[in-house]
Design a protein that fits this description.
Blueprint: H1 2-14, E1 34-36, H2 45-49, H3 55-58, E2 63-65, E3 77-78, H4 93-103, H5 106-116, H6 123-128, H7 136-144, E4 150-151, H8 159-175, H9 180-196
Helix pairs in contact: 1-8, 8-9
Length: 197
């Protein structure tokens, strides 16, 4: 039900967007948690951090979180930011875990943020150095502080095909008039079949 409301809202926005804005084919190809007006869409916070957006665009573009509906709650998934972890199949799990712990230290997280523009995985660094962020970057910082934030789900079987189902469903929701509930039901059926293969 929540996906139907979210995609309905995005469909309404897409109906007033410039031609082509809702049909990007790179990562984060469709409007999701964040939309950017007038100049197109923003692929992620690293674009702001690395100052890839030309100064001439900063006066006409803005980043804003989608509004919460009545009874809604702030939640998000991390896409394109940095997540560190150790896989269950790693042959050197302890060494990998030690490396992850090093990457998550305040010192390394600060250096990583300053050199790459990617928001730090260390909450202390996020709360101090990045807390001074304003404008578009502040929206991304606030998103990472959402209490219900999760990593992007992964799938054991056919992960790319399952994500393609979701992308294609979003595209159909934004670019066609097909009932969104029907699109989601079809995607769910297809994804379930892909998981069983």
């Amino acid at each position: 039900m929540r996906n139907v409301r979210a995609l309905t809202f995005l469909r309404q926005i897409a109906a007033t967007a410039a031609p082509g804005v809702t049909a990007y084919t790179d990562e984060n190809r469709f409007p999701g948690k964040h939309l950017v007006g007038r100049q197109g869409r923003l692929p992620g916070q690293w674009t702001v951090g690395n100052r890839i957006i030309p100064k001439s665009q900063t006066g006409t573009s803005a980043v804003a979180a989608l509004p919460l509906p009545p009874g809604g709650r702030a939640a998000d998934v991390v896409v394109g930011n940095q997540l560190f972890g150790v896989t269950t199949r790693s042959p050197h799990q302890q060494a990998a875990l030690d490396f992850v712990r090093l990457l998550a230290t305040a010192r390394v997280a600060r250096i990583n943020y300053l050199t790459t523009g990617r928001l730090p995985a260390n909450r202390a660094v996020l709360d101090t150095i990045v807390a001074r962020a304003s404008g578009p970057m502040a929206v991304f910082v606030d998103s990472l502080k959402a209490p219900a934030i999760l990593p992007l789900p992964s799938y054991v079987s056919n992960p790319q095909k399952i994500w393609d189902e979701w992308y294609n469903t979003q595209l159909a929701a934004l670019a066609t008039s097909q009932p969104i509930s029907d699109l989601l039901a079809k995607a769910q059926t297809n994804a379930a079949a892909l998981l069983q293969q």
